[in-house]
Design a protein that fits this description.
CATH architecture of the largest domain: 3-Layer(aba) Sandwich
Distance between the termini: 38 Å
Number of strands: 15
CATH class of the largest domain: Alpha Beta
Order of helices and strands: EEEEHEEHHEHEHEHEEEEEE
Mean pLDDT: 76
Number of domains: 2
Structural class: alpha/beta
Number of helices: 6
Shape: globular
Low-confidence stretches: 1-15, 269-297
Radius of gyration: 20 Å
Largest sheet: 6 strands, mixed
Helix content: 10-25%
Strand order of the largest sheet: 6-5-2-7-8-9
Length: about 300
C-alpha cells in the first residue's frame, strides 16, 4: 500500500516535501517572562524553544528544517536538514536571550539558507518568531524579496512584539501573521498541530480518493495533511484535494498515480508507484492551490 501525504499553504505551493527555515528571536527581551493561566511564569525564549520543537516534531516525512537565529544580526545555527535530527533540536535549544532585534537580517539569512540548500520542487517556508520590533520598511523589503525568490514568510508575535511590523512582513512575504501577544501559552499546542493550518491560512482540506470516497483531511499548523493508505489499481488512480482558506477562498487540484502490472508471472497485479524521494507527499501535481483560489459563492 502507498500512503500519500500532502501539503497546502497560503501561497499555493504544494510539492514534493517541505523546506522550512525557523527564524528565531535571540534578542535580550526574550529573557523576559510571561504569566501562564495557572499563574506560573516561563521565559519567552524557553516558550519559543518548546513551540519550535513541537512544530518540528509534528512535521511529516520529507521535511527539511533549518534554524536561523537573529538578534543584532542573523546567522545560521543549523542548515536545512532532514528530520528527525538531533542537530535541529540542539540548534533550537541553543538560542538564548541576548542582543538586539534585526528582523530584516533574520529574513535575509533564512532566504540565503533556502537559496543555498533548498531542494527543487519543495514547498519553501520561512517562519519568523519575535517579541520585538525592527525598522518596518527594510523588514518588509526583505520579506518581499524572499517571496520573489519563491519563499513564503510567516510571522508569529510574542508579547511585546511590534504587531503592525510583523503583520506587514507576513503580507509582503505572502504569508500569515499569528498574534500570540495575549495568549502565548497556546503556541505550543498550536505548533504541535492541534489547531489546523493556522500558520498558513488553511482552514481545512477535503480529499476525494480514486473510488469517489470523500473525507476531511486533518491539517497541521503548516498545512500538512495525510490521506489514508490506498491499494493502487491498474491504470490511473486520481486523488482530488479541495483546500479552504481563512479568507473564504477555495482551491482544487489533483494528483494521478498509475498502477502497473508486476513482472514475473502472476504476482501481485499492481506495483506500488514510487512517490517523491523527498517523502511520501501528495504533492508534485498539486501546484495550483494558490493560483486557482476562488471565492466561495
Amino acid at each position: 500500500m502507498t500512503m500519500p501525504d500532502g501539503q497546502a499553504n497560503a501561497s499555493g505551493v504544494v510539492g514534493g516535501g517541505l523546506d522550512l527555515v525557523l527564524a528565531l528571536d535571540g534578542s535580550g527581551s526574550m529573557g523576559s517572562s510571561v504569566v501562564l493561566p495557572d499563574g506560573s511564569r516561563v521565559r519567552r525564549d524557553i516558550l519559543q524553544q518548546q513551540a519550535a520543537n513541537a512544530l518540528v516534531n509534528s512535521l511529516p516525512a520529507g521535511s527539511n528544517v533549518g534554524v536561523v537565529e537573529f538578534q543584532s544580526s542573523g546567522f545560521v545555527r543549523q542548515t536545512l536538514t532532514p528530520i528527525p535530527d538531533a542537530g535541529v533540536t540542539s540548534a533550537i535549544n541553543a538560542i538564548v536571550a541576548s542582543g538586539g532585534t534585526d528582523i530584516r537580517d533574520g529574513i535575509v539569512t533564512a532566504d540565503g539558507e533556502l537559496d543555498a540548500n533548498g531542494r527543487a520542487g519543495t514547498s519553501k517556508q520561512i517562519l519568523l518568531i519575535s517579541d520585538g520590533g525592527s525598522t518596518q520598511s527594510v523588514a518588509v523589503a526583505a520579506a518581499a524579496a524572499a517571496l520573489a525568490d519563491g519563499y513564503t514568510v510567516n510571522t508569529v508575535g510574542f508579547p511585546g512584539a511590534a504587531n503592525s511590523t510583523l503583520a506587514a512582513v507576513a503580507t509582503a512575504g505572502g504569508g500569515t501573521f499569528v498574534n500570540f501577544s495575549n495568549n502565548p501559552q497556546d503556541i505550543v499546542d498550536i505548533f504541535g498541530g492541534n489547531s489546523g493550518g493556522v500558520l498558513v491560512g488553511v482552514d481545512g482540506v477535503e480529499i476525494t480518493d480514486p473510488d469517489g470516497n470523500t473525507f476531511a483531511g486533518t491539517v497541521d499548523a503548516l498545512g500538512n495533511f495525510k490521506v489514508p493508505a490506498y491499494n493502487l489499481k491498474l491504470g490511473a488512480n486520481t486523488w482530488t484535494a479541495v483546500a479552504t482558506f481563512s479568507d473564504q477562498t477555495t482551491a482544487t487540484s489533483s494528483l494521478t498515480l498509475f498502477g502497473t502490472t508486476n513482472g514475473g508471472g502472476g504476482g501481485n497485479p499492481t506495483a506500488p508507484i514510487p512517490l517523491p524521494a523527498s517523502g511520501l507527499l501528495l504533492g508534485l501535481a498539486l501546484a495550483g492551490f494558490g493560483v486557482a483560489r476562488r471565492r466561495r459563492g
